[in-house]
Amino acid sequence: MVYRAEYIWIDGQKPTAKLRSKTKIVPDADSPPVWGFDGSSTEQAPGESSDCVLNPVRVVPDPIRGGNDKLVMCEVLNTDMTPHESNTRAQAAEMAEKYASHEPLFGIEQEYTFFKDGRPHGWPAGGFPAPQGGYYCGVGADEIWGRDVVEHHTEACIAAGLNISGTNAEVMIGQWEFQIGPADGVTVSDEIWLARWLLYRIAEDYDISAHLMPKPVQGDWNGAGAHTNFSTAEMRENYDAIIAACEALGKKADYHIKQYGAGIEQRLTGLHETAPWTEYHYGVSDRGASVRIPWQVARDGKGYIEDRRPNANMDPYVVTALITDTVCSELES
Ligand code: ADP
Ligand code: MN
Ligand code: MN
Ligand code: MN
Asked: 293: domain CATH number?
């Protein structure tokens, strides 16, 4: 007999890459093999030399098709098996390897916005919804849109064996969040991409589209971020390492901001939580800061920090590699 393997990869669109997938029928006795695709249709290759390679990096049960079917997260390689220029996972894996002795852990909060009929789900046609205030963690048909999709997505992530750690309704109408982690940076990033694919795919069946745009509605409406929680073995042991990590991130603030997702200046205006993109500061319990030290961490004198700056549309391979490099190189100096 055979099973269906859905090969999922990240394309070459700029400034924000998107997910693609296609199905391969594989004999039951085989694991998903290396495969390929037409890179000229995904901004990854010219037409006269269009072949790109799909290299499986994580195989999980397919919770949508069920049975023996699989989801296959892939990285993109050139035909000589070197990483394709769009392959940010290769650098993340290198960085994880280089600093493995610090045992970095990440937990990412992925915010997103549902759209229906060309506007945020719940937004009335030709008018305005009630101002934000009641939607965050709300309950009831006047506050909540899309919970059926969220529940379906959560069940799928659990069935796929992902490290999903929670979900909540967000501040803007039709906006939600799920969290993946804590786990090592490459695992969390692979799973963020798989969970994003599951979200798009499941919402499809409800005729709803999920978006990661950082500022879905201009004006007094919250943007969508991807708060990135981070710790090393040292930070999980003592507070000096927590402060050292916050200081290290401050020294390279501009360098990080530029790689935290397209359109970050629209989201980090300073008006809706988190410091403006032009400024850096950290603080205990401070949701107006760039980097927050959770109150339990200050109390216990150890734990993790939350980088609040990354956009919802960030590439987790890029962000986790950057944070690992910046903080671990400082801890070693
Ligand atoms: P918030 O209060 O900012 O909404 P959440 O509960 O949404 O926080 O997310 C907290 C995240 O922190 C989770 O994704 C969790 O996996 C992560 N986390 C917890 N402990 C650690 C740790 N020691 N290192 C890294 N991440 C952690
Ligand atoms: Mn959260
Ligand atoms: Mn949130
Ligand atoms: Mn947060």
From this structure: 3.30.590.10
Q: CATH number, domain at 69?
A: 3.10.20.70
Is the residue at 48 inside a domain?
yes
Q: Letter for the amino acid at 105?
A: L
| Total domains in the fold of the chain | 2
Atom of ligand 1 nearest to the CA of 230: 25
Q: What residues make up the domain containing 266?
A: 95-332
Closest C-alpha to ligand 1, atom 2:
294
Query: What's residue 171's pLDDT?
Result: 93
224 contacts 111 by C-beta, under 8 angstroms: yes
Q: Do 317 and 169 fall into the same domain?
A: yes
Q: Whose CA is nearest to atom 4 of ligand 1?
A: 109
Q: Is residue 89 part of a domain?
A: no
* Percent of the chain whose predicted confidence (pLDDT) is above 90: 92
pLDDT tens column, 224-273: 999 999 999 999 999 999 999 999 999 999 999 999 999 999 999 988 78
Would residue 50 count as lying in a domain?
A: yes
Instruction: Classify 278 as helix, strand or coil.
Output: coil
- DSSP per position, 201-232: HHHHTTT-EEE--S-SSSSSS---B--EEEE-
List CB contacts of 254: < 8 A, sequence separation 6 or more: none
Residues 18 and 129 grouped into a single domain: no
Q: Name every protein residue with a CB atom under 6 angstroms from any ligand 1 atom.
A: 105-107, 109, 165-166, 179, 181-182, 227, 229-231, 236, 303-304, 306
Identify the pLDDT of residue 203. Answer: 98
pLDDT at 23 over 90: yes
Per residue, the 3-state secondary structure of 21-71, as one string, reads: EEEEEEECCCCCCCEEEEHHHCCCCCHHHCEEEEEEEEEEECCCCCCCCEE
State the chain's mean pLDDT as an integer. 96
